[in-house]
Amino acid sequence: MAKQTVNRTSAGQAVEELMIEIVATFFLLRAEEMRIGVVSPSGEGYWSVLRLLKVNGAQTVPQIARYRYVPRQSVQKLANEMLADGVIELVNNPAHKRSKLLRLTPKGEAVFAEMSERIATLAETLAEQGDAIQLQNAVDVVKNLHKQLRVMLEQ
Fold first, then answer.
1. At 136, which helix (H) or strand (E)?
2. 33 domain residue, yes or no
3. Fewer Cβ atoms within 10 Å of its own Cβ: the N or the C terminal residue of the chain?
């Protein structure tokens, strides 16, 4: 069977290069976020789960896993750590008797605010040599790719 080759466009090549750079940057960001304490030592997004609960309200472990496209078990492991830390709590779920909702505690609100300040400081440091318009354009491009990928994965 003959191998099909993709008709390469300059836009497709640019997206491929962007994907490579996003992945490489993700790992660097994760290492720095671990250093400043917003990612757990296991590499899980502690702050991102707090943010998700802050923005979207109480969620179940499966809801968080679906949103993040990660295994439920990894979210459960992180949730157990966060429960032990007292930053989230389990509350009854009116839609499901056995699947509890995770909700921020007052301590979780405070930890989220503190971690958000660390991230804001990191962002300001990284932005010092950037151009606001170029950075916003980059955000728009990545958000568009995010939306396209969500649509593809949900089909």
1. helix 132-153
2. no
3. N
Number of structural domains (the chain) is 1
Model confidence, pTM? 0.82
CA distances from 150 to 1, 52, 146, 153, 155 (A): 32, 17, 6, 5, 9
pLDDT digits (tens, 9 = 90+) for 40-69: 777 778 899 999 999 999 999 999 999 988
Query: Across the chain, how many H-helices and E-strands are there?
Result: 6, 2
Hey, what amino acid is at 71?
P
Is the pLDDT at 1 greater than 70? The verdict is no
For Cα atoms 23, 55, 73, give the angle at the middle one, nearest 5 degrees: 55
133: in domain: no
